[in-house]
Structures are given as structure tokens and as C-alpha cells.
């Protein structure tokens, strides 16, 4: 199992960061691997909602379906990948920080088969993607 986490402080009010991040329609803008969003992206986030996205990984377009498993407004939201090449879970955590927002993005994957053998390589790529995405989010919201 691979567990990844990155925390960044964004110099914007928590409500503004929350509103931007929790709207899945913004994912292709700030998340480095998301290339498009589909079903569910325009719906209010609540437990049980499913959102379809297409991600790019190693040059391949892969469909992904996420199901919201936890949602506490302006604090925490979590998903489970229900359709993905690699099963996993992810979460966002938000907290006030010196007039800004401390944002934490977490990802846990449980690779099988070929993906299990290549997990160390995939973990490095995923870690880089999480850091890049968080930095892009910070840049976008602070501009």
C-alpha cells in the first residue's frame, strides 16, 4: 500500500479555497493528471455522490469513478476510487492558518498485479503529481 500526503498553506480565506477545491469542475485546471470531468461533477458534494473523471497517466487516458465517502463542510472531504486501474482512497483537509488556509491532500493506493510490481515507480510519479497540483492550486488562488 502506498500512502502519500502533501500540505501547503494558501494565502486565501478558507471558504474561498474550499469553494474552489470542492468543485470538481475545477480539477482539470489545478490537478496535473485530470484531463476531463464528467457525470456528477456539476452536483453538490454529498456522501454517496459519484463523479467520473478521465486522468492521464504515463500518456494513457484512464477513466476513474470516485464515490464521496465523507464530507464535512469547510473541513474535510474524502473519496474512494470505485472504478480505477489502481484502487484507492483520497481526502482533502482544510484548516485556518494565519489568515490563510492549510490544505492537505492525501492519497492511499492498493496496487495489484502489474501495478503492484511497479508500485515504487508509480508512487514517485503520484507524489510528484500531488506536490505539483498543490503548488498549482496555491498559485491560482493567490494570483
User: What is the C-level CATH assignment?
Assistant: Alpha Beta
Uncertain stretches of 5 or more adjacent residues: none
Number of helical elements: 4
The CATH architecture can be given as 2-Layer Sandwich
The named CATH superfamily = START domain
Q: Secondary-structure element order, as H and E?
A: EHHEEEEEEHH
Do you know the CATH topology?
Answer: Alpha-D-Glucose-1,6-Bisphosphate, Chain A, domain 4
Q: Could you explain how this protein is built, in words?
A:
- It is globular and about 40 Å long.
- The chain has one domain (2-142): Alpha-D-Glucose-1,6-Bisphosphate, Chain A, domain 4.
- The mean pLDDT is 91.
- 29% of the residues lie in helices and 43% in strands.
- The protein has 143 residues and is α+β, with helices and mostly antiparallel strands.
- The chain starts with a strand and ends with a helix.
- It has four helices and seven strands.
- Strands 1-7-6-5-4-3-2 form a seven-stranded antiparallel β-sheet.
- It has helices spanning 14-21, 27-30, 113-117, 119-142, and strands at 2-10, 34-37, 50-57, 60-72, 76-83, 88-97, 100-109.
- A hairpin with a 4-residue loop joins strand 5 (76-83) and strand 6.
Amino acid at each position: 500500500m502506498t500512502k502519500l500526503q502533501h500540505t501547503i498553506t494558501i494565502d486565501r480565506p478558507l471558504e474561498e479555497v474550499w469553494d474552489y477545491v470542492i468543485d470538481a469542475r475545477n480539477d482539470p485546471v489545478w490537478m496535473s493528471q485530470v484531463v476531463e470531468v464528467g457525470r456528477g461533477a456539476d452536483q453538490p458534494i454529498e456522501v454517496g455522490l459519484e463523479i467520473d473523471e478521465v486522468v492521464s497517466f504515463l500518456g494513457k487516458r484512464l477513466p476513474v469513478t470516485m464515490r464521496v465517502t465523507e464530507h464535512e463542510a469547510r473541513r474535510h472531504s474524502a473519496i474512494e476510487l470505485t472504478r480505477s486501474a489502481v484502487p484507492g482512497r483520497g481526502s482533502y483537509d482544510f484548516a485556518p492558518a494565519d489568515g490563510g488556509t492549510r490544505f492537505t491532500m492525501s492519497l492511499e493506493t492498493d496496487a495489484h498485479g502489474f501495478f503492484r510490481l511497479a508500485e515504487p515507480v508509480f508512487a514517485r510519479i503520484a507524489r510528484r503529481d500531488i506536490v505539483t497540483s498543490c503548488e498549482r492550486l496555491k498559485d491560482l488562488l493567490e494570483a
